[in-house]
Amino acid sequence: MEVAKKLQGVLEAQNYEPPKELTHCGGKRPCSAGKLWKRAEEMRKADMHDDAGADLIRALLKTGIEVDFIDRCKRSLQWAFGSIQRQREREKREAIEEAKQEARKEEERAAMEEALERIKEYEADFSKFGVMLQESIANTNTDGDGTKENKSAAVGADGTTTIEKETEKEVEDLILNVKKSFVEAGPQGGNWSETLQLTKKVRPSDKSTDILLIEARCHEMLGDHKSALSAAGRLIQKAASYTPWINDSPRMIAVTLGANAAMQLGLSENAISFYQTVLKFDPEQQKTRKQYRGLKKVVKLMGKADEQIEKGYNKAASVFVEDCLSAMRGLDVDSPLFRSRIQLKQCAILSGMGKFEEALNHCDSAVEQRVAGNTNDSVSDKSLKEAYLVRAEALLADMDYDEAVQDYWAADRLTPEDAEHLQEKRELNQKLQQTKHEQELWNGGLKDMRFNENTGYPDGRPPQRDHAKILELPIDLDERSKDIKCAWLKKQFKALVRKYHPDKYKGNKKRGTRKFKEVKEAKEIISKQWEC
Length: 532
Known about the structure:
By secondary structure, the protein is an all-alpha fold. Among the domains are: 2-101, no CATH class; 114-137 and 167-334, Tetratricopeptide repeat domain (Serine Threonine Protein Phosphatase 5, Tetratricopeptide repeat), CATH 1.25.40.10; 466-530, Orthogonal Bundle (Helix Hairpins). It contains 21 helices and two strands. The chain has helices at residues 2-12, 20-23, 33-45, 49-60, 67-143, 168-183, 192-199, 209-221, 225-239, 250-264, 268-281, 286-311, 314-328, 336-352, 356-375, 381-397, 401-413, 422-443, 467-470, 482-500, 509-530; strands at 149-155, 161-167. It has a two-stranded antiparallel ribbon. A hairpin with a 5-residue loop joins strand 1 (149-155) and strand 2. Helix 5 (67-143) crosses helix 6. The chain is elongated, with a radius of gyration of 35 Å. It starts with a helix and ends with a helix.
């Protein structure tokens, strides 16, 4: 009641003149106590508890009012101040959450800047490597030709012995041609396809760390991350030792390249193994330690999210997944496959919590990334199918049956028609048929023996929709009075129409237009049912 006393003190101050729109009810005369109480009730239903409390105090300040009315006003005032306190606590929690989000964004910005610097260093290291190759080529040309023969005997099928002669000069010339092709466009490298074809002519036993790095770089620039990972792994295996791992050395460049390739393939454990190899031989390697900790943090957060999901704690799991996505922004490489895997997990979690807008934003992003990856063969049909199925489930929960059917069709087309996938194909087809049935009920218009022109339904079966769910009304609202139901209807309609208005909605425009139309139709139907 301290707040009430302070408000009353302000209202009773001699120099205080309240605005007429607060004290007058449309005419020239001030509002009566009854009209103030009625206006306070309307404001209370609209969650305008501050204004409701002020009107109740104004009503209590009126003279000549009955005792019963005073008691009723006091009860309403007590309820209003309780609501105000809860509102303040909610606003405080929101402010704390907003501050946390801002702090997270600052951390993300700092991490992204550091990652960007490391990417620049990575490209600069390749330029240094190119300069080193150019110097090596120049020195080879200066040294002149020195030819040594390497002879080996081989027994033919007829028992005769032949002498195979291969000069080291031929091997050296081939390696020299690989280097020349790589730096022909400049020290940063180039001629990826041509250079790669030359590296294939070099025998595995003759491939030095330089040639293996050139091979890995060519695969990376051509988008073949699987081959890049393999070449980088062979280089590390060949060059691993307990000597210091210098930042711009070929084997250190290969570590970053191999880890990046593994992440592009969604193989976080393989990426971690690259960093662990360096730290095993050189524990003081600071750059690798920072990269290792960043990736390990992401994997650890994903593990915690999975633990919470198993326990059924979706809200806690959602926080860990969001932290995981935030931590990913500090990695050297943004892996579409790995990121989409996390986003699909978040989509499923948020959908289960009823947060369909956020869930579908994550699903849309994941599908887009996997479609792009599938186009250049870096994402398999199986991974793309997984994305479509997760989004289809989220769309079903959001009652978007048209789009859900499309996603199930897409998943069905990506499922092979063979004996191994027969059961999966059958289950998917069954799910598709169920969704199509839900779609027909939702959209209506289907004509049958019961719904046709002769039975009074010229437009066919009327749509069967959960209008209360569309308007996000409380499930126990039917038990409340007509005034409360109509107040909730008005409040939800106003909020949702503003949210999904075509000029203001920032999400998927097609989805926003559908929601906007469904909300308006639902409000019209429920208004007639409740006589609002």
